[in-house]
Amino acid sequence: MSAESPAAKLGSRERRDGWRLPARLVIYNLVLLVASPLVAAWLLWRGLARGRSMGSWRHRLGFVPRLGPGRPRVWLHAVSAGEVAAARPVLAALRSGFPQAQIALSTVTAAGMAMAERTCRAANAFFYLPLDGPACMGRALLRVRPDLLVITEKELWPNLLGLSRLLGVRVLVVNGRVSDRMLRRARWAGPFVRWLYRLPDLLCVQSEEDARRLARLGGDPGQICVAGNTKVDNMAERDWQAEAGLARDLCVGPDEQWLVAGSTHPGEDEAVLAAFDRIRAEAPCARLLLAPRHLQRVPAVSALVAQRGFPVMRRSEPAPRPPEAVVVLDTMGELQAAYGVAAAGFVGGTLVPVGGHNLLEPVAAGRPVLFGRHTENCADMAELVLQAGVGFQVADSGELAERFLRITRDPQLREAVAERGVRLIQRQRGASQRCAAAARGLLGPKEDR
Q1: Is the residue at 156 inside a domain?
Q2: What is the pLDDT of residues 1-22, one digit of tens each?
Q3: pLDDT tier at 380 (50, 70, 90 boundaries)?
Q4: How many other C-beta atoms can be found within 10 angstroms of the C-beta atom of residue 127?
Q5: What does each C-alpha distance from 59 to 55, 73, 134, 144, 323 come to in angstroms?
Q6: Among residues 277, 333, 390, which one has the least CA distance to residue 112?
Q7: Are residues 14 and 82 in the same domain?
Q8: pLDDT, tens digit (0-9, with 9 covering 90-100), for 226-270
Q9: 194 shares its domain with 297
């Protein structure tokens, strides 16, 4: 990054924008207008067929809560529960650095909103992200009047970013990453992707590989900084009380070896259950907890378990647990604790072509992590855990069963993995503080606020 301050860069970039940014927003919104019937049909299908709530329609139309007095004013956006977890340490660091700040937190999903309201007490207001039309997003920006917009990961909405720039709002991306899917999209939408990535003032990405990919997509090297993954800061300290409470509620026996399969997707639950069939044939004391990625799939996953001939119970059902029952996790915010009672954790989205999820969660709980070959969205994490000797890649249900059995039969391996995992997590800490420092740089000296 150059020695020029972020505030000075903002001014020079605004001068260079000239008429181009308004013109591009007009073109984008004309395309959006033409596509609006398809967008409306998709929203209707999403709500009715898939059972996904749109949250508050007042918020979606831009009638979001107004913030009280106090500066700076920060709008922090995280799409769903996983991104809220990533945003939480950033929120804490911002609150520590700016005690008088007014901070609003927005999400897209109901699960994200529930987690935000439960765990992000440092925020002053919560709302669902407005629809990315000029009227809805513009209304929200005028009601919040942020000095800084902080976006997690890949939530790059053109009107949100473009209108923020036109209103003089500084834009920071944290936990940024560039997936294989985005690289493929850039082949046919290169100019649009390049424009989108140049709208933020600063992009704090997770890894050097993300920085290289972003530069390939046309990102300005002066806008890119490698800050790390803020989710690690959330995982650095184990919640021993939560782990003990979960073990007690599930009646975990001293001789039981649990496989916890987290963030699973359709097609993957079947593979995990097939692996568990093989595991139980050799280790009758083995137990399974299945945590589907989306809670609306809990009934379908529970039915699938029953079809395979296993007793099934949901986490929310009262104890005691029936002997040998497969537990389906139907609560929010307990997956990390569940990994803590496991012999090993499997992370989903990797045996099916989804791209994977957070491979460091089982590691942070001191457990080996198992995962499939589809790691496009977490390739850096996959390389990290493999090199550290705390993760094992499997090709199918057979290898998943074989690897889990080898882990349960080798207490020295489990002890070594726990020690390596602690060291790995400690080395990865500090991303939220680096992102908060970037925010301070964009906001400038106190006298400028």
Answers
A1: yes
A2: 444 444 444 445 554 566 788 8
A3: confident
A4: 25
A5: 8, 18, 14, 12, 46
A6: 333
A7: yes
A8: 998 898 888 878 889 999 999 999 989 889 999 999 999 999 999
A9: no
Percent of the residues in the chain that have a pLDDT greater than 70, as a whole number: 93
Quick: pLDDT tens for 50-104.
Answer: 556 667 789 999 999 999 988 899 999 999 888 898 899 999 999 999 999 999 9
Token reading at 7: 């505030």
Decide: 331 and 114 in contact? Cβ < 8 Å: no
CA 392 to CA 404: how far, in whole Å? 10
Tokens, residue 263: 């963030």
Phi-psi region of 141 (alpha: psi -120 to 50; beta: other; left: phi over 0): alpha
374 and 304 housed in the same domain: yes
Q: Is the peptide bond preceding residue 72 cis, with omega within 30 degrees of 0? A: yes
- Place 48 in a pLDDT band, splitting at 50, 70 and 90: low
Are 298 and 215 within one domain?
Answer: no
Amino acid at 359: L
Average predicted confidence (pLDDT) for the chain:
89
Residue 420 and residue 366: Cα distance in Å, rounded? 8
How many folded domains does the chain comprise? Answer: 2
pLDDT value at residue 445? 56
Q: Report the percentage of the chain scoring pLDDT > 90.
A: 63
Q: Are residues 275 and 161 in the same domain?
A: no
Please report whether residue 415 resides in a domain.
yes
203 assigned to some structural domain: yes
User: What is the extent of the structural domain holding 244?
Assistant: 240-427
Catalytic positions, written as ranges: 83
